[in-house]
Amino acid sequence: MIGLIVSLVFILVLSRKSLPLALVLGAVVLGIFTLPVSLMLEKIYLTITDLSIIFLALAMGVIPLIGGTMKHSGQIDDLVNNLRIGKKGLLALSPAIMGLLPMPGGALLSAPILEKGGEDVPSDLKVAINDWFRHLFVMIYPLSSALIASAKMSGMSVYSAMLYLFPTFFFALFLGIIFFIRRVEGKIIYPERFQLNRLLLPLFIILIAPVFDFLIKSLHIFKIKEIATLSGVLIALVLSIVLSQSRLDFKKIIGEMKPYNFFFIIIGMFLFLNIFKSTNAVEMIAAIPLPIATLGVVVGFLLGFATGRVLLPASIILPVYLTQASITPASFALIYTAIFFGYVISPVHPCVGVSLVYFKVSLKNFFRLLALPTAIIFCLTLFLSFVLK
Length: 389
Description:
Elements: H1 2-14, H2 19-34, H3 37-48, H4 51-73, H5 75-82, H6 87-99, H7 106-117, H8 123-139, H9 145-153, H10 158-179, H11 196-219, H12 226-242, H13 250-257, H14 259-277, H15 281-286, H16 292-307, H17 311-322, H18 329-344, H19 350-359, H20 363-387
């Protein structure tokens, strides 16, 4: 546990200079504290030679290039100018829509829209909105793989689980409006009349990537499913370039978007995750002397925060819970909520990392905005876990 704490502190401090480097070195620090050197080196080797991770990292490197080409071609301008739902609606809805798309890296697709639609909005607030609203709808989305798998592990219907998560969803939506959207001021001034074709074209480019990703995965064409993700984003990038009505300076786009940063964020994240999974975390968690519901909430939140994942903490916490008690829909909702919001603000969560890099915001400023609403949800969840014990 000491190694985990030291590695997270290391990530938080070093991320001020470079988040990709912080994640990689944070994983190494965790390995040095918790694993034999030979096993740590083995995990490093397995991570950097895992083709599924490499293809996913490549896809994450392509996504900011889509945003860059759409920005420089004027396609983002067209989308913002013709999506007539108001400034607050645009900033809240665009990440929410992207969050429902079955594709990693959606935070990078909504980031350029927030950047353009909220030109006078502070960058740290845009990161908070992008992260918070992107994940709110995912929490209750019945096609979410994390929710489906977690509900199945608990022996309940995904729709029962979803029903019990609705109160948290509406409360978190309320907090998001109070803490973030309420701070957005001004209106979007539309210089031209509404043009449907200029709305549909950028939407088509943005949506084509997850659609192809989903279709290719459904057809089981590739053994490595991340090839589908890479194929989808490459198709979107090519379309954005081909359909651009202006000449694009790719050297400038690459220099501005820094796609290599996003590539190494994914490598560092999975390196941390693979080393963490090799530690004795499960045995230590099971030995903590807390009521089982409270244990699930506290440790679930910490694991969500430590791993930047939902399924991994759920696969640890739910089996531990089920060995000691039967899980009710209410206790499931509390544990899942705790895991989920630990994941939402995790520094090793890809959406957090790529949003911070895109908007050039420090991890400290990100936590400054997200800490209070997240703490409110966690404290309420913790209180209810004592009531249900």
